[in-house]
Amino acid sequence: MALLVMKFGGTSVASIKHMENVAARVRQEKQAGNEVLVVVSAMGDETDRLVSLAEEVQDQALDTRRELDVLLSTGEQVSIALVAMVLLKNGIAAKSFTGGQVAIRTDAVPNRSRILEVDADKLRVELAKGVVPVVAGFQGIDEAGTITTLGRGGSDTTAVALAARLDASECRIYTDVEGVFTTDPRIVESARCLEQISFEEMLELASLGSKVLHTRAVELAGKSQVPLRVLSSFNDAPGTLITREEDLTMEAPLISGIAFTKNEAKLTLLGVPDLPGIASTILGPISAANIEVDMIVQNVSADLSTDFTFTLSREDYDEAATILKQVAATMGAREVTGDSSIAKLSIVGVGMRSHAGVASKMFEVLAAESINIQMISTSEIAISVVIDEKYLELAARALHSEFKLAESTA
Ligand code: ADP
Ligand code: ASP
Ligand code: MG
After folding, report:
1. What's the burial of 128, exposed, middle or buried (CB within 10 Å: 0-12/13-18/19+)?
2. More confident residue, 93 or 354
3. DSSP code of residue 168
4. Pocket mutation for ligand 1, best pick of 155, 173, 177, 347 (most atoms within 8 Å of C-beta)
5. Cα–Cα distance, 178 to 193 (Å, whole number)
6. What b/e sequence results for 261-287 when a residue is b if at least 16 CB atoms lie within 10 Å of its CB, and e otherwise?
7. 263 CA distance to ligand 3 centroid (A)?
8. How many whole angstroms separate alpha carbon 81 and alpha carbon 375?
9. Which CATH architecture has domain 258-402?
């Protein structure tokens, strides 16, 4: 008997009526002879609501990360209980499980824990009895028994981890769009739903900002070779299959997709003495404060002093700026400047490996729209630029059109 893991995101369990739709889909799969395991997110915007409540009591001097995890994990606990009740009401044997009850063991890093192992024995017992386990996404438990969460969007990762552990035939991520599009369909109207995409490209798109899948989920699915499908919970379209590059049945286009994120900021230290070790003197205190740095650029000027710029997540901007001002004072740097209204936009495609000129075409398109590029970084299959956030949507549309992403390659 094939096992299907079906994960439903926030919009798909936003109300009891939506949960009835979940029950109908589960029934359909059970009737087709499959075993089913359900993973759910918190209802609608519940996690956002809980985050804002926590922000109301936030105090920079206090470490409340443990309590934040306890708070945020309640959202998923509500949905597993209600979804299990709705399944029972529909005559489907079901039982809810929190992350701790499964047990989904994570490391002890609060708010962005990584899953270390999953003890799936209890779930196997229930599945063997024909019961549908309804597991809380996004949450786990560390060695000390503390509740942890996997970072925003982490329910996808719970689903893939369970699918991998239980050797599921497919992990389906049901969401509010029809699948993985060439870019965010809410921003670019002509975005096209992809039939399939490679793990590698999906991983780049996710880590560069396409929130349709949690980055760790793609990473895990790629490693464990679990077939992963993103599809709508509101219609019966087949969605997008994320698969190995060698299994793609279509030739890879030059560019597969465009990802972007507005959640960016940059900081610059001007007039730093150009001496060995400056990068670590600057970034050491930043990483000691658990702040992640993304792009880094260092320019040497004519007087042999350098300017050092890096990007980081916008929520870390104020804290990093304070640290950097202290660093600047101790190392005799001239000035700290910053900008918290930048965005990062990236084009991704395995086709780039064998084609030159993709970067220059991207820069031409941006130049034609008079959009200034502030920073550039590249990987084997992606090119990212930092631009002023106010031009992000214009840039995404222009690139989508110039690279002809609305046109099917099939
Ligand atoms: P869920 O609550 O179901 O997990 P998310 O909000 O996390 O849903 O992810 C779905 C959203 O991702 C879509 O509504 C869409 O706006 C956004 N998105 C961003 N990039 C893409 C893309 N390339 N393809 C599809 N959706 C995307
Ligand atoms: N409820 C969590 C969030 O909103 C996890 C998820 O939906 O994947 O981030
Ligand atoms: Mg999500």
Report:
1. exposed
2. 93
3. -
4. 177
5. 7
6. beebbbbbbbbbeeeeebeebbbebbe
7. 16
8. 47
9. 2-Layer Sandwich (3.30)
pLDDT at 271 over 60: yes
Answer yes or no: are the C-beta atoms of 104 and 161 closer than 8 Å.
Answer: yes
Which amino acid residue places its CA nearest to atom 9 of ligand 2? 152
Q: What element of type H or E holds 247? A: none
Q: Which residues pair with 309 in a beta bridge?
A: 268, 297
Fold held by 3-176: Carbamate kinase (3.40.1160)
Residue ranges around ligand 2 (CB below 6 Å): 9-10, 41-42, 47, 75, 137-138, 152-156
**pLDDT of residue 410 exceeding 70:** no
Q: How many A from CA of 137 to the centre of ligand 3? A: 10
Instruction: Tell me what pLDDT residue 1 has.
Output: 83
Q: How far apart are CA 405 and CA 192, in angstroms?
A: 7
Ligand 3: distance of its center to the CA of 352 in Å? 28
173 Cα–ligand 3 center, Å: 9
| Residue whose C-alpha is closest to residue 217's, from 13, 4, 7 | 7
What confidence category does residue 409 fall into, taking pLDDT thresholds of 50, 70 and 90?
Answer: low
What is the strand order of the sheet 375-379 is part of?
A: 293-300, 305-313, 257-273, 335-348, 382-388, 375-379
Structural domain boundaries in the chain? 3-176, 258-402
pLDDT for position 46? 98
Query: What are φ and ψ of residue 169, in 5° steps?
Result: -80, -25
Give the span between the Cα atoms of 98 and 94, in whole angstroms: 14
State pLDDT tens for residues 40-66: 999 999 999 999 999 999 887 888 999
Instruction: Band the pLDDT of 299: cuts 50, 70, 90.
Output: confident
Q: Which ligand is nearest to the CA of 14?
A: 1
pTM, 2 dp: 0.94
Calpha distance 89→38 (Å, rounded):
16
